[in-house]
Write a structure and sequence with these properties.
- The structure holds two protein chains of two kinds.
- By secondary structure, chain A is of the alpha+beta class.
- Chain A is about 60% helix and about 10% strand.
- In chain A, the strands form two sheets. In chain A, strands 2, 3, 4, 5, 6 and 7 form a six-stranded antiparallel beta sheet that branches. In chain A, strands 1-10-9-8 form a four-stranded antiparallel beta sheet, covered by helices on one side.
- In chain A, β3 and β4 form a beta hairpin.
- In chain A, α5 packs antiparallel against α6, α8 runs antiparallel to α9 and α16 packs across α17.
- By secondary structure, chain B is mainly alpha-helical.
- Chain B folds into three domains: about 30 residues; about 60 residues, Helicase, Ruva Protein, domain 3 (Orthogonal Bundle), CATH 1.10.8; about 50 residues.
- Chain B is about 65% helix and about 0% strand.
- Chain B is built from six helices and no strands.
- Classes of the chains: A alpha+beta, B mainly alpha.
- At the A-B interface, α14, α15, α16, α17 and β1 of A face α1, α2, α5 and α6 of B.
Chain lengths: ~675, ~160
C-alpha cells in the first residue's frame, strides 16, 4: 500500500514537472500568458505529490511497514518516535525525498511571490530552471534513489537508525536545517540563469533574490553550527569540527555563498563584478550538488565505489550539466556582462570586498582540493593517501587571519576611497579594543602567538562592528539593528566569537585519562577536581542500556556512560559535559578490560561561545532580512554633492555604513 | 593641528608597541605542561582511522581507532618521540594512515597549488587596480557632461 501510494506520487510529481516544464517553455517561446498561468497548476500538483510522498514515507516508518525496503533497512520497532520521524533523512533515498519536498516548497513560494509577474521573462526562466532541477530530483527517486522499493519477503523487524544518530535529539533538526539552506540556493541560481537567458544581466536579478540568498545562507550557517554542536555532544572527545568530507561538503557552498553576499554589494553599488557574481551563485548551487555527490556516492571511501552506486554517475553528470550550462551562458552573454566603471582605490569598501572574495575563493579551493585530492591521486597513480586535519588546519590558519583582518578593516572603510586620516580616526577605538584583548589574554595565561593574534584581530573586528551598530542605533534607535548592514555587523560579531572560541579551545585544550579503582578516588586537571562516586545502570524503554559512571566534577555530579545498543550490537560512549562560559569539562568513559574505571577528561576554554556565536549569527541574519530603510532606486548611491531641495540629501546610514560619520562625501549644501 | 596629529600618531605608536610586545610575550610564554594525554590526542589527530571514511583516530569510535589510540598511548608512555610514534604507526598500517599529505611529488601539489593560486589572485587584483588607476574618466563625452549639468540644474531648482 505504502509502496504503491509513494511511488505513485513520485511518478505523478515527475510527470507534472515534465509537463510543467514543457508548458513553461512553450509559454516563454510564444509569450503565451495563458500557458504561463497554467504552469501554476502544474506546480500545485508537484507540491502535492512531494507532500504525499513524504507523508506516505513517514506513515510507513511510523507504522513499521517493513515491506518498504527503506523502512526495513533503516527502521526498527521500539525506536523513539522522534528518531523514527528523523529516519526520513537518515539514509540516502529518504534524504532525496526530503530534498525534493523542500525544493518544491521553494518552487511554490517563488511562484506565489511572483504571481503577478509571471509574464516577466526573467521570472518565467527562473521557474523553468527550478522545474528542471525538480525533474532531476523526482527522476532520481524514480531510478537510482527510489525510496519506495517493495520487499517480497518483509522482515519482522529492522536494524534501526545508526546508533550514532540516535544519541541526540538534535540530530532530528540538523539535517533539515542544512537542506533548507542547501536547497535555498536553487532560487538565486534560477534567477541568475533567468538573467543570463533574457540578457537582463544588470542588477535586477540581484535585488530580486537578495533576501532569498541571505535566508538560505542563514539556514545553512545555522545547520553547520548545529552539526558542530551535535558532534561535540555525541563524539565526546572535545572535537566539534574535523574537516571530514561531509562537513567539507556543507562548508563549500557556505564559503562561496558568503563570498557572494559580500560581492553583491559591490555590484549593487557600482555595477561591477557581474560575471563574478553570476559565477559565484552558479558555483554555490553546483557545489551543493557536488557535495551531495561526494558524500552520497561512496566515492570518498574509494574512487572505485563510485561506479557501484547508482546515484554517483547521475549526480556527477548533473553537476557537469550545471557547469556546462552556466559557463556556456556566461560566455554567450560575454558582451553584455562587461562592466563599466572602475574601483578608485584598493583602500576602500569595494577594495576590501574584492580581497574578501579572493580569500573566500581560496578558502573554498583549499577545502575542495583537500577533500578530492585522495581521489585524484588514487585515480592517477593508484596510491591511497589521506588528507586530513593537519593539512586543513595549516592551510586555513593564514586564511582565517586574513579574514579576521578584513573583518576588522572593511566595516570602517568608506566606499570609493579612504584617506589615512579617516582610517586613523575610525580605527582608533577598535584598535584599542584589540590591543586590550591581547593584553587581557596574556594576563589570563594565554601562550602562543597564533591564539593571541586571533584575540587581538578579533577585538579590532568586534570593535569595528560595534562601532557601526553604535552609530546606527544612536541615529535610528532600534532600527539601527535591522537591515543588511546592521544585521550583517551582528553576524560579524557572531563570527568573531566563533573565531576566538575556535582559537582558544584548540590552543588550550587539556586532556587526561584517570583510572579510578575505588569510590572516593580523586584526580585533578587544570584546576578542576574529579571524584569517583560510583556506578549506575539505566535501561531506556527503547532497549538501550547506559552503564553510567558517577563523577563529582568540582562539586556537581556528572554521569558519563557507555551506552549499549543491543539491537545494533554496538556500544557507544555517551559523554557528559559540564559547561560554563569560561570552560567546558567533558567526560567520557573509556572501555577497559578489567574492573577499574577509566575516565577521559577534556577541558577546553570558551567552547560555549561557539554556540553563542552561532545563535548570534542566526539572529543577525534574521535582522538583516528585516527591511531597513531602503534607498530608493532614484536616490543617489553616494552622498549627494548638491542639494536637491528634498529628502535625498542625507546619506542613508542603512545603505552606506561608511557614511556614519561622513567620509569624503559629507553632505554639502548647495 | 600639527600638535593634534602628532598626539594621534603617538597613540597609534603606543598601540602598535603594546600589540607587538604582547605577541612577543605570547611567543615566549610557556603554556601549561603537556600531559602524555595531550600528546596522544595531538598524535591521534594526524592519523586516519583505517575503517572510517575520512575520520581521524581521535574522533572515531570504531574498534580499530580505539586500538590505535591505545597503541599510541603505550608508545607515548614508554617515552617514544612523536616522530617515532608516527613512524611505527605508518609501518604497521601503511602510508594511507598518515593524514598529513607528503610535501613532495604529485601528492605535494596539494600544498603548493592553493598558495600559487592565491598569490596569482592577489597579483591579478594588484594588476587590475593599476590598470584602473591609469584609466581616467574617459568615455564621458562633452555631450554627456552637458547632460549631467543640465539634469543637475533641473533638480536643483
Amino acid at each position: 500500500m505504502h509502496v504503491l501510494l509513494g511511488y505513485g506520487s513520485i511518478t505523478v510529481g515527475f510527470a507534472a514537472a515534465v509537463l510543467g516544464l514543457i508548458t513553461n517553455g512553450y509559454a516563454l517561446a510564444t509569450k503565451n500568458q495563458r500557458a504561463m498561468k497554467s504552469v501554476i497548476g502544474y506546480i500545485a500538483i508537484i507540491v502535492a505529490a512531494a507532500v504525499v510522498g513524504v507523508v506516505v514515507m513517514e506513515s510507513a516508518l511510523l507504522n513499521h511497514d517493513f515491506s518498504v525496503k527503506y523502512v526495513a533497512e533503516n527502521g526498527r520497532i521500539g525506536t523513539p518516535v522522534i528518531f523514527t520521524i528523523a529516519t526520513l533523512w537518515g539514509a540516502l533515498e529518504g534524504s532525496i525525498l526530503l530534498w525534493t519536498l523542500i525544493l518544491t516548497g521553494y518552487l511554490a513560494v517563488v511562484a506565489w511571490r511572483f504571481r503577478d509577474r509571471l509574464n516577466d521573462a526573467m521570472v518565467g526562466w527562473a521557474i523553468f530552471t527550478i522545474l528542471a532541477v525538480t525533474i532531476f530530483f523526482f527522476g532520481l527517486m524514480l531510478g537510482p534513489a527510489n525510496p519506495f522499493i517493495e520487499l517480497a519477503n518483509p522482515p519482522a523487524d529492522g536494524p534501526g537508525l545508526n546508533p550514532l544518530l540516535q544519541n541526540n535529539a538534535f540530530m532530528a533538526f540538523h539535517p533539515p536545517m542544512l537542506y533548507l539552506g542547501y536547497v535555498g540556493f536553487t532560487v538565486p541560481f534560477a534567477f541568475a540563469i533567468g538573467a543570463l537567458v533574457t540578457g537582463r544581466v544588470g542588477e535586477g536579478w540581484l535585488v530580486e533574490t537578495r533576501r532569498w540568498t541571505v535566508f538560505a545562507w542563514g539556514l545553512l550557517t545555522f545547520g553547520i553550527v548545529l552539526g558542530a554542536w551535535w558532534s561535540y555532544q555525541t563524539l565526546g572527545w572535545g572535537g566539534y569540527w574535523a574537516w571530514d568530507p561531509v562537513e567539507n561538503a556543507s562548508l563549500l557552498p557556505w564559503l562561496t555563498g558568503t563570498a557572494f553576499i559580500h560581492s553583491v554589494m559591490v555590484q549593487e553599488r557600482r555595477g561591477m563584478l557581474r560575471v563574478w557574481n553570476l559565477s559565484l551563485v552558479c558555483a554555490t548551487f553546483a557545489l551543493t550538488i557536488l557535495g551531495t555527490f561526494l558524500t552520497r556516492s561512496g566515492v570518498i571511501a574509494s574512487v572505485h565505489a563510485f561506479s557501484e552506486s547508482g546515484i554517483g554517475p547521475v549526480l556527477i553528470g548533473f553537476f557537469a550539466v550545471i557547469v556546462a550550462v552556466t559557463v556556456g551562458l556566461i560566455g554567450w552573454r560575454g558582451d553584455a556582462l562587461r562592466s563599466v566603471g572602475k574601483i578608485d582605490s584598493p583602500i576602500s569598501r569595494e577594495g576590501a570586498f574584492l580581497a574578501n572574495n579572493v580569500v573566500f575563493a581560496a578558502f573554498a579551493f583549499v577545502v575542495l582540493l583537500g577533500t578530492v585530492w585522495p581521489l585524484i591521486i588514487e585515480a592517477f597513480s593508484g596510491d591511497r593517501i589521506a588528507v586530513g586535519n593537519p593539512f586543513f588546519d595549516r592551510m586555513t590558519l593564514p586564511i582565517g587571519f586574513v579574514l579576521l583582518f578584513l573583518m576588522a578593516m572593511a566595516p570602517v572603510l568608506p566606499w570609493r576611497k579612504a584617506s589615512g586620516e579617516v582610517l586613523s580616526d575610525r580605527l582608533m577605538w577598535p584598535a584599542v579594543v584589540g590591543v586590550a584583548a591581547m593584553v587581557f589574554s596574556l594576563f589570563l595565561g594565554a601562550a602562543g602567538w597564533a591564539p593571541v593574534l586571533a584575540f587581538g584581530l578579533g577585538g579590532v573586528a568586534g570593535g569595528s562592528a560595534a562601532r557601526q551598530l553604535i552609530i546606527a542605533t544612536r541615529r535610528q534607535g532600534w532600527r539601527g539593528l535591522v537591515g543588511r548592514t546592521n544585521g550583517g555587523m551582528i553576524v560579524h560579531i557572531g563570527v568573531i566569537l566563533i573565531a576566538v572560541a575556535f582559537a582558544a579551545s584548540n590552543a588550550y585544550l587539556r586532556q587526561a585519562e584517570f583510572r579510578f579503582e575505588e569510590v572516593g578516588d580523586t584526580a585533578e586537571l587544570a584546576g578542576h577536581t574529579f571524584e569517583f562516586v560510583g556506578t549506575d545502570q539505566q535501561v531506556s524503554p527503547d532497549g538501550r542500556i547506559d552503564d553510567e559512571v558517577l563523577i563529582n566534577v568540582d562539586g556537581s555530579l556528572e554521569r558519563p556512560a557507555l551506552t549499549l545498543f543491543p539491537f545494533a550490537g554496538r556500544t557507544l560512549g555517551s559523554s557528559a559535559t559540564r559547561g560554563s562560559l569560561i570552560d567546558d569539562v567533558q567526560l567520557s568513559v573509556v572501555p577497559t578490560d578489567d574492573e577499574t574505571v577509566v575516565i577521559r577528561a577534556t577541558i577546553q576554554p570558551l567552547v560555549q561561545w561557539l554556540w553563542i556565536g552561532g545563535i548570534l549569527m542566526a539572529i543577525g541574519t534574521a535582522l538583516a532580512l528585516v527591511p531597513g530603510k531602503r534607498r530608493r532606486p532614484t536616490q543617489a548611491a553616494s552622498a549627494p554633492a548638491f542639494d536637491d531641495g528634498g529628502d535625498g540629501i542625507q546619506p542613508d546610514p542603512e545603505v552606506d555604513a561608511s557614511s556614519g560619520d561622513s567620509p569624503a562625501g559629507a553632505p554639502v549644501p548647495a | 593641528m600639527a600638535g593634534l596629529f602628532s598626539r594621534r600618531a603617538l597613540v597609534w605608536l603606543c598601540l602598535l608597541a603594546v600589540g607587538l610586545s604582547s605577541l612577543v610575550v605570547a611567543t615566549q610564554a610557556e603554556g601549561p605542561p603537556r600531559t602524555n594525554q595531550d600528546r596522544v590526542r595531538a598524535l591521534s589527530e594526524d592519523v586516519a582511522c583505517p575503517t572510517c571514511d575520512g575520520q581521524s583516530v581521535a574522533e572515531s569510535n570504531a574498534v580499530i581507532a580505539l586500538e590505535i589510540r591505545r597503541d599510541i598511548q603505550r608508545r607515548v608512555d614508554a617515552g617514544d618521540s612523536d616522530a617515532q610514534v608516527t613512524e611505527a604507526l605508518i609501518s604497521a598500517y601503511g602510508e594511507s594512515i598518515d593524514l598529513r599529505p607528503s610535501s613532495g611529488g604529485l601528492v605535494g601539489l596539494v600544498w603548493t597549488v592553493p598558495v600559487v593560486l592565491m598569490v596569482f589572485g592577489f597579483a591579478a587584483l594588484f594588476a587590475v587596480f593599476r590598470r584602473w588607476r591609469s584609466i581616467e574618466l574617459e568615455g564621458a563625452s562633452d555631450s554627456d557632461v552637458a547632460l549631467v549639468e543640465e539634469l543637475r540644474r533641473g533638480r536643483a531648482t
